[in-house]
Amino acid sequence: MQQMGRVEGKVVLVTGAARGQGRRHAVKLAEEGADLILLDICADIEHNSYPLASKDDLEEACREVEKSGHRVISAEVDVRNRESLQAALAPAVAELGKLDVVVANAGICPLGQGQPIGAFANAFDVDFLGVVNTVHVALEYLTAGASVITVGSVAGLLAEKAGAGGGMGPNGAGGAGYNLAKQFVDRYTMALAAQLAPLSIRANVVHPTNVNTPMLHNEQMYKMFRPDLPNPTVDDALLTFPMLQGMPIPYVEPEDVSNAICYLASDESRYVTGVQLKVDGGASVKF
């Protein structure tokens, strides 16, 4: 039988929480005993070709958390705006009494050729500055035993390895911004871990491969994996998705990433800090 209550009594902040990975992380942590603060922009962002979560999605995420019997507070917040984050987090922490864990998960991946430079800026601002804003706003509430968890990307690390992290690359300006942001998230988290260790606060980064969420299942992503076809379908992309992983799988499920998040949020990892936890089906070792 699965052990329950692994984060019993903790209060956890999750950004990008309305759907996809963020919602699954929130529900998993609630099932394991945590109270949640859920933040999401609940609006589309310019240059991002697939629709982002809605207010209804955030409300549904809250209902899923509440099924576990735990408290949840939510707000519509753009992580690019530090003042808005501060305004949302302060009353939530006051109501729930503390903050133990930060999961900086919010992210976008605007792919496609011919994008304006704004696609680079928006991807970088959400995927890196959004992480920094979230963590730095939360720092004043964290005490010994707290855990900071950022979400990177194995694809971003592989792009850096291949020397494609700085240019426009085959995925356009937005793809370049995404890759650079995820590389910076990795370096930032390692530097942050060193600064927080004397305070007995941990910082770790989780690097997923393809994850079965709307970020993966959209037209531009299919075109990236099937550039040989003018209008590839999900079935077309499923033939090439496994090329990224070492294991013969097209992607991991959000639950696979949530399990890693829960471990890093729990006291099971109380002496684990400065770690790159790759949930990638062997992608990083393959390349």
Order of helices and strands: EHEHEHEHEHHEHHHEH
- Strand element count: 7
> SS-based structural class?
alpha/beta
Spatial separation of the terminal alpha carbons: 36 Å
The strand order across the widest sheet is 3-2-1-4-5-6-7
From the alpha carbons, calculate the radius of gyration and give it in angstroms: 18 Å
| pLDDT averaged residue by residue | 95
Top CATH class = Alpha Beta
What is CATH's topology name?
Rossmann fold
Structural domain tally: 1
- Going by CATH, the homologous superfamily would be NAD(P)-binding Rossmann-like Domain
Strand content: 5-15%
**Largest sheet entry:** 7 strands, parallel
Question: What's the shape?
Answer: globular
**Tally the helices: what do you get?**
10
What's the helical proportion of residues? 40-55%
Unreliable segments (pLDDT under 50, ≥5 consecutive)? 165-169
Write the CATH architecture name.
Answer: 3-Layer(aba) Sandwich
Could you provide a short overview of the structure?
Belongs to the short-chain dehydrogenases/reductases (SDR) family. With 287 residues, the protein is α/β, with parallel strands linked by helices.
